[in-house]
Each structure stands twice: as structure tokens, then as C-alpha cells.
Automatic annotation (TrEMBL):
Sorted UniProt keywords: Transferase
Name used for this protein in its record: GNAT family N-acetyltransferase
Sequence intervals crossing the membrane: none
Keyword Transferase: yes
Length: 348
């Protein structure tokens, strides 16, 4: 049996062909269990962040197995359709293919991609689920010259059917002491909302603006996405107040057994009572004991504080590939390998 491939430039075509396979799981379709693998995520992200970039949705099928690569083109380069909001970018599968079929599909699709672009740049690709290794192997088999490097990190934990109290007892002593001391004062009021409300979101944005974090690049997209999560019943919008004023805020979603920590912030100078830490503690308790999640995902970045809350970590890769037969790929390819050679010479 030979794999077949096709390439689409709009989401409507892909949605029709996927027939529910790229949607949120439902009674009528298996769908995608991970938020960042779903077509509506990619479409919303593209429309908000990459509207001036043409989608390139690559699809290969072999029997009942399907592979989708959600890409976009910029000149002669195919880029992963991902942004700071994306916890991961990876091949999206339907039909439950085994590893050999995955490799065959990826090699076939990436071979055809050489007729469309001369460079491919993919990030952030996880190693935990073998996405990075499958893509690298398939690229090399398809004739690409491949470079791969760790450029970010993912932290997460598996709840493993534990109660929150059992997990909390294993956290660092300093963290547990902070929560006990600051929480016992009773000066921080905590709220966790599952329904979207514009006024609450206004408070979330106000806290973020006054925090230590840089300005939000696409606030309208975040508001739109939070509203969608509220409609789906998966939103967890949390606010910490001191004397009625919002001083810390977090945006989570809980979807198909996974709690995603999208955004968290607190107002600079208002952290004497550790409102952000108390809010995180409350959200973890809810995720463990009420939402009964199997995984809590802290997204991208290797911030030190994440280690206090998480138990596992793995690198996220940037994979760059060049077609050695296309002149448009040569300058970047030569520059990259020249830099690598120079670094080796300096290290001797």
C-alpha cells in the first residue's frame, strides 16, 4: 500500500477531509485529546497572529492512518504554526498508526514538501512522545539536511491517582511553609471561575499589565480563547484579591484530563502576602481533587519556580531542515555549519 499526500491552504478543506478527526473529542468522533493538536486551535492562532502568512496544511494517509502537519509558508520556508501560546507543536495523527506507519507517512509527506519549499523550521517540538525523533529520522530519509537543538523546556506532572494532600506533602518545605503562613492570615481572597466574564477578564488583563511580565502581544486572542474555553466548560480563571482588589490572576484550562497553565501574573510590589502562590495552590488542589486530571502542564520555559510544583521536565526542540538541491537553502545552511565548525575549532 502506497501513502497518498495533499496540501491545503485553508482550514475549511482540512476540516472537511478530517471529518472530526482534528476536533475536540465527542460522542461522534475520536478527535484530538490535546488542545494544541486541534484544528480550531491552529485556525484561531493563525487568524489572530499569522493572518498575513499563508497556511500550508500538509496531509498524508496510508489506509486508515493519517498525518497532518500544520505549517505556514514565509518565502521559501515552511514554519510550524506555533507561537508563545503553544505548549508544543508536533505531527498530528489520526487512525492510531504504529511507529513504522508514522515514519512512513512522515517520510512521504516530507519528501513531497521538497517540491514546495527549500527550508523547514519546526518548534517547539517535544521529545517526550518521540515527535522530535520521528520528524528528524523522516527528514533525513526524505533527503533533507537536518539540524536539531533544544531551545526551550516543558515541565509537567502526572497525578497518578494521588490525592492533592499526598502530592502536596512531597513539595519543598519552603513552599509549603509559605502557603501555610500566608494563607493563615486570611487576608487573601481566592476565586476560581469556570464561566467567562468580560469584567473578570478585564481584571485579569489589569493584573497582567501591572506585573513584571512584558506587555501581552495579542490580548484579543487570549480573550477570544478564554471565552471559547468558558463556553466549553474547560476554563479556570482565577483571581486573588486583597481588600477587594485583584492582585494576582491565572488563566488555566482543564481539558480531557489535562490541566494547562496558560498565564499567571501578580502585581509588582503586592507580593508580601504571596497571593500568586496561594492562588496556584488553590488551582492545583482543584485540579487534583475536583477535576481529577491525570496531568498538569506548565507549558514552555525553564523558570526555576516551576520545579517546586512540577515533577517531570523534558526539552523542546527546534528542528531546521534544508533541501541541499535548492540554491535558496544554501546561504542559511552554509552559515549554520560554518558557525558550528568555527565553534569546534575554538574549543580545541
Amino acid at each position: 500500500m502506497t501513502a497518498e499526500s495533499e496540501y491545503h491552504s485553508n482550514f475549511a478543506e482540512a476540516r472537511k477531509i478530517a471529518a472530526g478527526g482534528l476536533d475536540r473529542p465527542s460522542a461522534d468522533a475520536v478527535g484530538q485529546h490535546h488542545l494544541f493538536d486541534r484544528l480550531d486551535w491552529f485556525e484561531s492562532l493563525h487568524d489572530a497572529v499569522f493572518l498575513n502568512t499563508k497556511p500550508l496544511i500538509a496531509h498524508a494517509r496510508l489506509g486508515d492512518a493519517n498525518l497532518w502537519l500544520m505549517l505556514m509558508t514565509e518565502g521559501h520556508t515552511a514554519l510550524s504554526m506555533a507561537y508563545w501560546y503553544s505548549f508544543a507543536w508536533r505531527p498530528v495523527w489520526t487512525g492510531n498508526p504504529d511507529d513504522a506507519t508514522k515514519l512512513a507517512l512522515a517520510t512521504h509527506l516530507l519528501s513531497g514538501l521538497r517540491r514546495r519549499v527549500s527550508t523547514v523550521a519546526l518548534s517547539p517540538v517535544p521529545v517526550e512522545d518521540n515527535s522530535a525523533s520521528i520528524l528528524q529520522k523522516a527528514m533525513r530519509q526524505a533527503g533533507w539536511i537536518v539540524k536539531s537543538e533544544a531551545t526551550s523546556h516543558n515541565h509537567w506532572l502526572e497525578t497518578a491517582s494521588r490525592a492533592f494532600a499526598d502530592w502536596w506533602a512531597e513539595r519543598p518545605g519552603a513552599l509549603r511553609s509559605t502557603v501555610k503562613r500566608k494563607g493563615s492570615k486570611g487576608l487573601v481572597a481566592l476565586e476560581i471561575h469556570s464561566n467567562f466574564d468580560d469584567k473578570l477578564w478585564d481584571e485579569f488583563e489589569a493584573v497582567y499589565r501591572e506585573s513584571w511580565k512584558p506587555p501581552e502581544s495579542h490580548p484579543d486572542f487570549l480573550r477570544h480563547w478564554a471565552r471559547r474555553e468558558g463556553q466549553a466548560g474547560t476554563l479556570r480563571l482565577a483571581i486573588a484579591r486583597i481588600e477587594g482588589t485583584a492582585v494576582a490572576a491565572q488563566f488555566w484550562s482543564v481539558d480531557d484530563g489535562v490541566a494547562y497553565i496558560h498565564k499567571l501574573s501578580h502585581i509588582s510590589g503586592r507580593d508580601a502576602l504571596s497571593p500568586g502562590t496561594l492562588l496556584t495552590h488553590a488551582l492545583f488542589a482543584k485540579a487534583f481533587d475536583e477535576d481529577k486530571v491525570t496531568r498538569i502542564d506548565f507549558g514552555t520555559g525553564d523558570d526555576g519556580y516551576k520545579r517546586d510544583w512540577m515533577e517531570h521536565s523534558a526539552p523542546l526542540m527546534t528542528i531546521t531542515a534544508w533541501d541541499p538541491l535548492q540554491p535558496t537553502a544554501w546561504p542559511a545552511m552554509v552559515k549554520t555549519y560554518a558557525s558550528r565548525l568555527a565553534a569546534r575549532v575554538r574549543s580545541r
